[in-house]
Design brief:
By secondary structure, the protein is of the alpha/beta class.
Length: about 325
């Protein structure tokens, strides 16, 4: 069976076991990388390790095989012992899904796949779950893959709306506490729908940037949130609909057909402000609606990881 077709979020959502999902996605992704010419690595050799099924045969040391009659894989300095933590937004707005899978389900599959892939690269892996506070934290460790996947599988939005923070945006508090909890510098990936003013979102990352972590964000939205296409009948489009804010419970009545142009302009402005702001701050920004295949997100993560590790190697040699 072709594992690549399970990378589609809608197909994956029918599988109840998150650990199985993550491993299937990663195995298919790594298989694709082994067939590709873009598989990256650091040029700084560190050590050998015994060959394991699934390893890239291009990294076999054939000279060592000639001397020992055993297969060994070359490890490189940038391949070992990095810290990777994925932080997932579990707020009530993540409980939405109309034209794709629920945003939180997509975030869980994405976070699980990123973690499993990072562990396959010998990274120490950890997890943060947050709403208006840092609700759960699993510190990065070489032994925490199963723990991370278990916490992700249980993650759900709060039953009741959370009180808004006394000051600042909703992200500021949990990300500041995450920055304080993290020790050794590493890569932190934040998965959220970023439903607050762009300036508040960007300010919330100040604490993580100040501690020297490499940051990337996955902006997860349902396709209907991008274009206000709710798939209704013509009468529904014209007569209007009632919208309820999942975070506050506030209600708004409007006609999707009449509001669509202004809505799309506002969404485009919001996304542009986030993308440019994160770019200026040196944070990699990935917009992924819930129909985006997970291998796309994994490839973007791999590209960022390789760039970061190469930069670290050049800095170390300098």
């Amino acid at each position: 069976m072709d594992s690549a077709r399970f990378v589609d979020p809608a197909a994956l959502a029918r599988i109840a076991n998150l650990s199985l999902i993550a491993r299937m996605v990663v195995q298919g992704f790594i298989s694709g990388l082994h067939r590709s010419t873009v598989l990256g690595r650091s040029i700084d050799f560190a050590e050998h390790r015994p060959y394991m099924p699934g390893d890239d045969i291009r990294r076999l040391d054939w000279r060592l095989f000639a001397r020992s009659d055993r297969f060994h894989v070359k490890e490189f300095e940038a391949d070992t012992n990095a810290n990777f933590v994925v932080a997932v937004d579990t707020s009530r707005s993540m409980d939405y899904g109309l034209r794709g899978v629920r945003k939180l389900d997509y975030a869980r599959m994405l976070a699980g796949s990123l973690t499993a892939f990072s562990r396959s690269q010998r990274d120490r892996v950890g997890l943060a779950l947050f709403d208006v506070d840092l609700d759960e934290f699993v510190p990065p460790s070489a032994r925490h893959l199963d723990t991370v996947l278990e916490h992700l599988a249980r993650a759900e939005p709060p039953a009741d709306p959370s009180p808004p923070p006394a000051s600042g945006g909703r992200l500021a508090g949990p990300l500041a506490r995450l920055g304080a909890a993290l020790g050794r510098r590493g890569l932190v990936a934040v998965v959220s729908d970023f439903y607050e003013p762009p300036e508040d979102v960007l300010d919330a990352f100040a604490a993580l940037r100040a501690t020297g972590h490499d940051l990337m964000v996955f902006h997860v939205l349902d396709p209907s949130e991008l274009d206000l296409d709710l798939g209704g009948a013509p009468g529904f489009e014209d007569s209007g609909a009632r919208f309820r804010d999942l975070e506050t419970g506030a209600v708004l009545d409007l006609s999707p057909a009449k509001a669509r142009a202004a809505y799309r302009a506002a969404v485009d402005e919001h996304i542009t402000a986030l993308r440019s702001g994160f770019g200026r701050a040196g944070v990699d920004y990935i917009l992924a609606d819930t129909s985006t295949p997970l291998d796309f997100a994994l490839f973007r993560y791999l590209t960022e990881r390789e760039n970061r590790l190469r930069h670290r190697s050049r800095t170390h040699r300098a």
